Amino acid sequence: MPDQPRVRELNRSRYAVLGALTLGPKSGYDLRQFFSRSVGFFWSESFGQIYPILRTLSAEGLIEAEPATNERRRPYRITEAGRAALKQWLEQPPVMEVGRIEVLLKLFFAGEASPAVAFDHLQVVRNEHMQRLERYAQVADRLDTELADHAQVVYWRLTLDYGRRTSEALLAWCDAAEAALREATGGPVLR
């Protein structure tokens, strides 16, 4: 097993592409759609990332191009070597990353602005997570209807549950943060 610094150096996007291809052949466009429609709440890939990764994985023999469905779309499929590489990566411990959460950075320095700004930022977070909960409910419905018999649905539900619980926790945090701001500022602040 590689040491932790070596794991950090790996381009994990390549494994996201390999994983997506385990669900069937996909073109670069199909992969972008897959990322935006399924794992996009916790992992995103742009066209600018996907196409170089496809070229690299193909050169390494981890994927193979299939006949083009049209002149603009060439689907790729994962090879046995690609499945082995994905399996090896899956067996490694996850790297726990520190994210870049702009609202926390802005709240950290919010004393330099009007208190209303902090309330506004919390409202943005609240709205985003309320919308996410609605989208998670739609995904759950799809998992319960169209994909209920898929062999991997239990894993998809785990990631969905993580997102749902995270959004619920962040809504509770918004409530607590707003209460703390009201107490510190003497009440709601209007612009």
Please explain how this structure is put together.
This protein folds into two domains: 4-90, Arc Repressor Mutant, subunit A; 102-185. It is 64% helix and 3% strand. It has eight helices and two strands; from the N terminus they run H-H-H-H-E-E-H-H-H-H. The protein has helices spanning 4-9, 12-21, 28-39, 47-59, 80-90, 102-108, 115-145, 153-185, and strands at 63-65, 76-78. Strands 1-2 form a two-stranded antiparallel sheet. The longest helix is centred in the last third of the chain and has 33 residues, at 153-185. The protein is elongated and about 65 Å long. The model is unreliable at 1-10 (pLDDT under 50).
Radius of gyration, whole Å: 21 Å
The total of beta strands comes to: 2
Strand order within the widest sheet? 1-2
Category by helix and strand content = mainly alpha
Q: Tell me the series of helices and strands, N- to C-terminal.
A: HHHHEEHHHH
